[in-house]
Amino acid sequence: MTYKAQRKTFDILRYVGLVIGLIVCLFPIYEMLATSLKNEVDAFSIPPKWIFLPIFKNYVSVLTENNFIRYFFNSIIQSIIATFLSIGAGSLAAYALARRVFPGKRFFSSATFIMRMIPPVILVVPVFIMFRAIGILDSLASLILVYGALTMPFSIWVITTFIQELPLSLEESAYIDGCSTWQTFTRIVLPLIAPGMSVAAIFTFRTAWNEFILSLVLTNRVTRTLPVAVSLYITDTGTEWGKITAIATIIAIPAFFFTFFAAKQLITGMTAGAVKG
Length: 277
What we know:
The structure is a single chain. The protein has helices spanning about 5-35, 40-45, 55-65, 70-100, 105-115, 125-135, 140-165, 170-175, 180-190, 195-210, 215-220, 225-230, 240-260, 265-270; strands spanning about 235, 240. It is mainly α.
């Protein structure tokens, strides 16, 4: 077999593998969307019914029942504020770790990575007790604080990497021109690390938007978020899969668009520092 034939065969196998991988990744999304548009008979028919008349009854029910609008705005508010909290405090901490020398710097840097490894589920009981003691249990403030804290180690790690990639001469030039440390940080550093902040923001938003366990424990019927609202359709009389997949589809939309519109920044942020020289 000639080199050209080998190359062509390899390209074909590569594209076949790509198509198979794409099908495997997208099939659960298709199944969720299809189930939300089927009636109960079609959703559980064997063999599966691939061609069907879509209905929107499940979406109408989800949007008009169980205080959906309230839970939607709860999710939006706590996710956005937690994202700003994580990125704002994380960028300041990252700048200190990247540019300053102080006692315990190595310890704080290592502690940041260790905190990132802690599973959120083991924090449920101590966080519940602490928030109840200070009087913010069953409020959006509790979710904002806990999600901001949980995602901040990742934000610090990502943004620190970006700051370390910046030439120190840029900041030194700003100091020579009379800029203070704060002005140098806000006018020089922040615009240049925007891709890294975008990566951290997407991660923080998706975590705060999709998290279930902490939201279940720290909220009540007024302050619960959309992921918790999914459990309302698991009742004593059965599981309403049509409504569950409908609300799950709605939950996926904001995170999808948020990632899609920030795709350029996300790719830049994930590949930054991969090639040097």
